[in-house]
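Our consortium's second objective concerns turning raw sequence data into structural hypotheses that experimental partners can test. To show how far this objective has progressed, the report includes one record in full. It was chosen at random from the queue rather than selected for favorable results. The single chain below, 176 residues long, was entered without modification.
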Amino acid sequence: MISDEVWVRLDPRTGMVRRFAYGRWVLAAIAVLVAGVTWMSGAIVPRLSHDASGGSGSTSQDGAGRRHVEVLIGLEVVNEGWLPTTVTAVGVRSAGLTLRSVTLDGSGAFPRSIPPRTRMTLTLVLDVTDCRAALSEDVPLVVETEQWWGRTTAEPLAEEPWHALSVESVCRLNAS
């Protein structure tokens, strides 16, 4: 049997987790939660998605007999974040497509503010410079936005290739 004198000399908290360690775990959990909420809100990087709303294509020839293939595609860009996002420019990153013009819905021009959970309708006019390249690559829509801390670019998420159907139909009909 252990005497009371030995128990008095021993630290009763030996082997136990200290309260300060719990505080560190709580602070770490709060930091992760704040980071997740900030990311979901779109405060750092805008959370955008887009859907194709239709398209058409046409072909013409210039004075030298060169074929010119053009595609007109309607897109709806959706702000999935919890904060408004200001779009200052739209572009396309592709080896087979060249963006000629962008038209916004209604009247107005860039910059355009998109409130949370709302859509902005765009019409893109694209020149198809290489049908094979345009159909074989995943063409991202690039959106330049202005945030509270400065400008950034974002690639809105899409469930399916937004350009493929219009480009494929105009290239198949006008193959040479």
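The partners drew two points from this record. The chain is about 25% helix and 40% strand. The two ends are 100 Å apart (CA to CA). Both points have been shared with the crystallography group to help prioritize constructs.
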